[in-house]
Structures are given as C-alpha cells and as structure tokens.
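Exam review. A common question shows you a sequence with its structure tokens and asks you to describe the fold in words. Practice with the pair below. Do the first one on your own.
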Amino acid sequence: PIAEALLAKGAQLGVVLAFMMGVTTLSLPSLIMLSKAIKPKLMALFIGVCAVGIIIVGYFFNAIAPLII
C-alpha cells in the first residue's frame, strides 16, 4: 500500500524501491537483533554494504523505469 501511494503521488520507481528495501533491511528492530549476534565491526560493514546496494538499486531502476513502465 505504501509503495502504491508513493507511485500514485509521482515518486520515481527507483526511489520507491530503495525506500521499501531500506525500511525493511535497516530498520531499528532488525539492527538491534542483529547486533546481538555479530560484532560491531561486521555490523558497520553490513549497514554500509546494504546502504550502498540500496542506493545502486534505486539509481538502476530510475534509469530503466522508462523502458519498463
């Protein structure tokens, strides 16, 4: 429902996908649970890799959106 509303309001596809991925991957509850299982250095690496990956996916889908929509 949130993604549909954002798209209906004119948000770009890549922005919506990046937002939805970021909300689930980098949410505070999931990071708290994950921090109990892994070391802080690995946690920082996880957050960095996920953030960069989400940004890349957002830019990629913004670039190809005219071709698929």
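Now try the second one, then compare your answer with the model answer below.
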Amino acid sequence: MHPIVDALARCALFKDFSPTGLEIVAAIAQERVVPQGASIFVENMVGDSLYVLADGYVRICLRDANGRDRALGVLGEGDHFGELSLLTPGATRVVSAIAETEARIVEIRQKDFARLQAKKPQACLKLILAIAAGFGRNLSENRETLRSLLLSAAFRSS
C-alpha cells in the first residue's frame, strides 16, 4: 500500500472511504518529515492545511498570558489536526502544533482540496461531513467544560 494511502486509512476522518476514495485523496496530499521540536504551525498564523499524523508525536499547545506554551495534548499516529483550515480559508490558527518527536505527516492543502472539489465532489463532501461529525462529537464531549468556562467568563464580566 502507498504510504500516504496507509496513513489516511488509519485516520478516523477517512474511516468511511473506500480504497479508491483513499487513492483520490492521496493524489492531492503531500508527505513530509518534521524534525523533533520544529513547529508545523503556530498560533495566530493563517492556516491552509489539514494534517494527518502518519508517524511520531505532535504536541498541541496554546500560549498563555506570559508567552509560554501550554500543552493541551499530544497526538499520535492516525490522529488529525488543522482540519478547520480546509473549511475556512484565511482563518488563523487557534493553537500551535510542534513535533514532539520526529514526525511524518500527510498534508492536504486547501488549494489542492478546492481543485479536487471540481473533479471529485463526492470525496470532498465525504471529508467535509467527517470533519463536521468530529466537531459535533468534540463539542458534545466537552459540553460541560465549555459551559463552565462560559459561565465563569460571564460572571467575571458582571
């Protein structure tokens, strides 16, 4: 199996894709190796790509008020990140992604995704629906935390 197809097949976003669908997406994807400690993207940078982690670990972090990076979590093989950039061109990154180890990533750039929409809209729709479903699951799983944060912020401003 082609390394990019293999990486996509291990990612939850692509679980409902057929082998042909994976090949279609792999044709627009690029693979690259990121050295340990290197930034894949940084907070407030304009984003234009979705990433799938083929191998290694990536730390997701947020800069605190003192300018220090605070880890929110570590992603491993098969995880995806940066997916909002496919749906909102020009939007800035909310977090930073830094290679915790040497990491092999698969990148799908927004401009390549846009070209694929004209040729294979079904594959793009399937990916968009998977991204939306993932956001819905994350929102449901984090509902109480989000509610507490919003209430806390509302009481502070009162």
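Model answer, second protein: The mean pLDDT is 91. The CA atoms of residues 28 and 112 lie 6 Å apart. Full marks require stating both points clearly.
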